[in-house]
């Protein structure tokens, strides 16, 4: 049994993981609606086949035990009475040797014992009676499997989960006989009890029916098959990328015809799933038809997509609001997805409403909707580039705390950045975004309040103190020393105290990637979403107001790791306060260039400044912009400016000029005195 369970588990893993487009190796980022707004409003997420397969029939109030691990529970075959244990062992031995008649006799003999003498192995015997069915006693199949389930209901032991397994075994026999509908009914019941193997079986049957028109039309006469195929076309539509897409149309049309007059079963509706599948498949006519049949959250979501395709954003937002009101906040369709993490449906709908709020310039509603979406990268953009600092501070004040589990799944899917060590909540992350924005704007006192209690509190305080010193009534050398300290902190702690969560620093991936590069090649969407891109894209989704805000709230430098240029500017400002012939002046320029190593133009400008103004000789080994010894500020305090090489010439020139002016004056005075001393005539 363990080998069969292992194989079933492998099949389940391979079949239930949604197929994805083939891409080169690279990082997988959480889904971001604001990265591709047209795509976000065009796409309708695929549901979870695994979840929906467990809802094809009502979930029993008292489900059977499910045991589908590779290893059966320890001591599962122990604890029975002496007689029942011996009879089951004899029957199992005969079954294994191929002696079906003897095996059948021993199992029936065990089942004939008084109930109190067969508490442990009754379910074993009944289950094996069904498996042992063959020529001459075919009726044992249904009898044995159904008896297994009845015995469990009556309270007999079921340590191996044979009641659930009997549904699958019986379904497989019906499938072999060509009874697709009967098999699907049993597999659906098995899935409703929680069997993962049943979900795999349902997928394989649905896949086979989709490729066989005659077989499909016959099976669709049963409502449970209609529900299965509706779920299949909605949740597995990406498979049509790899196969003949006409199959999807074939299944949709067959379902449309089969459900024309089908009664609606409360809680088991399929029209909304058909609408969703039709949208994802690009059959907008069928999506329109099915979405109007009944009012469900999924149907409202499809109608919102149809409204967006018509360009009616007001109607779309209203329908999304209706959908959000009915979706279970904890519903998750992506538990078996590999690769890019998708948002929960409730969060996704809120995020789409946030996109529409931004498009109409509603900067009060947009942050609230994006917060509800639990998409931190999207919220980080709104917090960094859309809201003003004061709006962000008010927003943080309105959301001081949040339950750790509110967006736990989404936060756990983020890159394990440094912020994850400081806070486990989105409001906590927002406080850090606010702190960094305040510090970038020079509002240090306010910033420190939001850094409080984090690892960045101390470096942020030192940075603020250093900048404050540059404004005090101290010597220029002391100011330069403070600029040096601030520059060093901006470079070494910049991402934590000054960095942006989104462009250009991309703090939410710890600065490891320029995420905008990956945004240039968006993920391929479903065929329906790709077909809807053009009409949806006719509606402007990034307004002039948002663009103006995003530009005005950008950090001081557009370069990636912008805080490095901040450090370079601070170092240069310090250098300008020092004697140009000093070692400290040269080393401050050297460090400014090293901090700006990623900006060749600025590096060259700083080098030219040094060549023009710096000292000719420095004792320590150094290399401009690469190896920069610490500035010797103490030596700079005692240095007197040397005379310029042009000073002697200037003095000679001045003496000559003064002398030239004095000669005529002296000559005139001499002439006057001479005339005065001459005797007068007779």
Summarize the model shown.
The chain has 682 residues and is an all-alpha fold. Helices cover 61% and strands 0% of the residues. The protein starts with a helix and ends in a 5-residue tail after the last helix.
Distance between the termini: 158 Å
> Unreliable stretches, pLDDT < 50, 5 or more residues?
1-7, 9-24, 641-682
| Average pLDDT metric | 87
Question: Number of DSSP helices?
Answer: 36
Give me the Rg, rounded. 40 Å
Shape from CA axes?
elongated
- Helix and strand composition category: mainly alpha
Strand proportion: under 5%
**Helix content estimate:** 55-70%
Number of strands: 0
Largest sheet: none
Structure, described:
There is one protein chain. The chain is mainly α and 682 residues long. It has helices at residues 2-16, 37-42, 49-53, 82-97, 100-111, 122-132, 140-153, 162-176, 180-192, 196-210, 213-219, 223-235, 246-258, 271-281, 284-291, 297-310, 313-326, 345-359, 365-372, 376-386, 389-398, 408-412, 419-422, 426-440, 444-451, 457-469, 476-492, 494-497, 515-519, 527-537, 544-552, 562-575, 583-595, 600-613, 633-638, 647-677. The N and C termini lie far apart (158 Å). Residues 1-7, 9-24 and 641-682 have low confidence and may be disordered.
């Amino acid at each position: 049994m363990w080998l069969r369970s292992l194989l079933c588990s492998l099949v389940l893993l391979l079949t239930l993981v949604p197929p994805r487009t083939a891409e080169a190796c690279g990082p997988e980022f959480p889904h971001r609606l604001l990265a591709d707004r047209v795509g976000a409003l065009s796409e309708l997420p695929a549901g979870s086949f695994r979840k929906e397969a467990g809802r094809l029939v009502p979930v029993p109030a008292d489900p059977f035990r499910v045991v589908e691990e590779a290893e059966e529970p320890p001591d599962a075959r122990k604890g029975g009475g002496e007689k029942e244990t011996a009879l089951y062992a004899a029957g199992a031995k005969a079954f294994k040797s191929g002696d079906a008649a003897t095996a059948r006799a021993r199992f029936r003999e065990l089942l004939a014992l008084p109930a109190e003498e067969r508490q442990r192995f009754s379910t074993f015997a009944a289950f094996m009676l069904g498996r042992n069915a063959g020529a001459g006693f075919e009726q044992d199949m249904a009898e044995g499997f159904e008896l297994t389930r009845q015995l469990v209901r009556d309270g007999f032991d079921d340590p191996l989960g044979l009641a659930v397994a009997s549904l699958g075994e019986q379904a497989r026999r019906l499938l072999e006989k060509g009874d697709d509908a009967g098999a699907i009914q049993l597999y659906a019941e098995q899935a409703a009890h929680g069997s993962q193997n049943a979900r795999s079986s349902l997928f394989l049957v649905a896949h086979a029916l989709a490729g066989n028109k005659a077989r499909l039309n016959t099976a669709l006469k049963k409502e449970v098959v209609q529900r299965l195929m509706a779920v299949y076309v909605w949740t597995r539509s990406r498979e049509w990328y790899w196969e003949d897409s006409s199959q999807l149309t074939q299944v949709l049309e067959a379902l449309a015809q089969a459900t024309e007059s089908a009664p609606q079963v409360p809680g088991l509706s399929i029209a909304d799933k058909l609408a969703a599948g039709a949208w994802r498949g690009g059959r907008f006519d069928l999506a329109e038809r099915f979405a109007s049949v009944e009012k469900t959250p999924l149907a409202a979501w499809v109608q919102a997509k149809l409204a967006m395709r018509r360009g009616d954003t007001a109607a779309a937002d209203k329908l999304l609001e209706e959908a959000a009101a009915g979706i279970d906040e904890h519903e998750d369709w992506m538990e078996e997805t590999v690769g890019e993490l998708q948002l929960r449906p409730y969060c996704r709908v809120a995020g789409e409403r946030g996109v529409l709020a931004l498009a109409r310039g509603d900067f009060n509603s947009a942050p609230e909707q994006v917060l509800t979406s639990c998409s931190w990268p999207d919220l980080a953009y709104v917090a960094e580039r859309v809201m003003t600092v004061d709006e962000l501070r008010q927003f943080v004040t309105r959301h001081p705390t949040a339950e750790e589990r509110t967006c736990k799944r989404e936060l756990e899917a983020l890159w394990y950045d440094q912020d994850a060590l400081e806070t486990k909540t989105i409001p906590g992350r927002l406080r850090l975004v606010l702190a960094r924005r305040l510090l970038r704007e020079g509002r240090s006192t306010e910033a420190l309040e939001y850094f409080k209690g984090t690892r960045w509190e101390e470096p942020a305080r030192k940075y603020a103190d250093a900048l404050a010193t540059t404004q005090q009534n101290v010597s220029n050398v002391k100011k330069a020393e403070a600029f040096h300290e601030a520059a060093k902190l901006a470079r070494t702690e910049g991402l934590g105290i000054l960095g942006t969560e989104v462009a250009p620093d991309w703090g939410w991936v710890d600065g490891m990637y320029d995420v905008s590069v990956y945004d240039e090649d968006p993920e391929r969407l479903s065929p329906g979403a790709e077909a809807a891109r053009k009409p949806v894209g006719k509606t402007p989704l990034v307004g002039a107001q948002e663009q103006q805000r995003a530009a005005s709230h950008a950090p001081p430098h557009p370069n990636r790791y912008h805080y490095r240029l901040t450090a370079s500017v601070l170092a240069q400002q310090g250098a300008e306060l020092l004697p140009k012939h000093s070692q400290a002046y040269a080393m401050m320029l050297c460090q400014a260039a090293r901090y700006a190593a990623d900006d060749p133009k600025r590096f060259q400008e700083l080098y030219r400044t040094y060549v023009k103004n710096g000292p000719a000789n420095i004792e320590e080994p150094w290399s401009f912009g690469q190896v920069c010894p610490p500035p010797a500020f103490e030596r700079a305090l005692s240095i007197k400016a040397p005379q310029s090489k042009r000073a002697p010439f200037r003095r000679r020139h001045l003496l000559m000029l003064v002398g030239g002016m004095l000669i005529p004056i002296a000559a005139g005075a001499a002439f006057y005195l001479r005339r005065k001393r001459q005797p007068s005539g007779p």
